[in-house]
Amino acid sequence: MADEGIDHDFGGGDAGSALTFPIQCSALRKGGHVIIKGRPCRIVDMSTSKTGKHGHAKVNMTAIDIFTGKKLEDMSPSTHNMEVPIVKRRDFQLLDIDDGFLSLMNDDGSTKDDLKLPDNDLGKQIQDSFDDGTDIQITVISAMNEEAAIGIKNMA
After folding, report:
1. Does residue 145 share a domain with residue 109?
2. Where would I find the Translation initiation factor 5A C-terminal domain in this sequence (predicted)?
3. Torsion angle, alpha carbons of 141, 44, 19, 98, to 10
4. Which end of the chain has a smaller Cβ tally under 10 Å, C or N?
5. Residues 143 and 87 sit within 8 Å (Cβ to Cβ)
6. pLDDT at 80 exceeding the cut of 70
7. What is the pLDDT, as a whole number, of residue 10?
8. Do both 93 and 130 map to the same domain?
């Protein structure tokens, strides 16, 4: 009864899962993932400087963007939180290549037709294997609403 006349608008909710999660900088490890300058990256080098006169150790990170391969660097106090992307890795069977897009099949039989053929050596390798009639599996990583083919293997 006390709520009468009050508009309860809590904004739109997103039923999807989060794209990132926070983790304390000191808990990050080489080989793990982190977001630097808004991009999902794999950490390739880390070093921690000693505490300075203001009392916080700093963590220097060098990381490679998982989609572009670009090197990014960041420095953060070890006690601060950084965002870590949720990275998923899945294998699909290649069905077709149509107009520069891969047609892939999941384990459950569903198809995926919105992934572009990579414009690099991997893309050439995928195209050559497809042209030869070889049955191949494509490894796809996805993070932060982006995805890319990153690997290929022959199916036995």
Report:
1. yes
2. 86-153
3. -20
4. N
5. yes
6. yes
7. 44
8. yes
For residues 58 and 75, the answer to whether their CB atoms sit within 8 Å is yes
Please state, in angstroms and as integers, the Cα–Cα distance from residue 71 to each residue in 55, 65, 155, following that order.
29, 6, 33
- β-pairing, 88-98 with 136-143? antiparallel
Tell me whether residue 14 is in a domain.
Answer: no
Q: In terms of DSSP bridges, do strands 39-48 and 33-36 run parallel, antiparallel, or are they unpaired?
A: antiparallel
Q: Return d(Cα 24, Cα 84) in angstroms, integer.
A: 10
Q: What is the largest CA-CA distance in the chain?
A: 73
Q: Name the E strands within 5-105.
A: 20-24, 33-36, 39-48, 58-65, 71-77, 81-85, 88-98, 101-105
Q: Which domain holds residue 62?
A: 20-85
Higher-pLDDT residue of 53 and 142 is: 142
User: Residue 3 to residues 8, 11, 59, 66: CA-CA distances in angstroms?
Assistant: 9, 18, 49, 49
Spatial strand order in the sheet of 146-154: 111-116, 101-105, 88-98, 136-143, 146-154
Rounded-to-integer distance, Cα 132 and Cα 70, Å: 32
Domain count across the chain: 2
DSSP letter (8 states) at residue 18 = P
